[in-house]
Amino acid sequence: MAGWGNWASGNETTFGRIMAFDDENAYGYGRVRIASAAVGHNADDYHLYGVKKVLMTTGLPKPGRKRGQKAPQPAAKRPLKPEPFWADEQSLIVRAMVLTSDKLVVAGPPDLRKKAAGILAYSNEEESLASFKGEKGVMLRVVSTTDGKTLSEQSLDALPVFDGMSAARGRVFVSLKNGEVQSWQ
Asked: pLDDT tens digits for 117-143?
């Protein structure tokens, strides 16, 4: 079983609000886990992470399967979701991400949320909303793909456009919500 209506749960597969991939790994920003409650997810924890890719079977027959061939593994015997080899629960609220050969570049506002124990809300709602809107600063951060450590950080003039980042010829290009396109080396 998975989530509501048997949809595939993020607790069973690697997931994120924004992700980048290389041949062996996935990097993403999203919830640490999906809670199952009818009231929503207002105070979930988020993180930036790196995880090894795992081939997940779907349970669907492979093309060309002949009658009598062994069926795919049942869901209970499929590989479990891999644990991240690094995770940063103090990351930015990642709005843009690009992967280079050995670095992950992310951009967004600082995550100032303070979770209130026992309720599905933040104890600093006004401050966390102001941060989410970019009113508390916006950063471009370069992160090591090996261990998730911050290698460098620069201020940006405005929030990045969602998924508005690319890399080419040793430069990173960021599209900002104020209409600018910035280039970083």
From this structure: 677 677 888 998 898 999 999 999 999
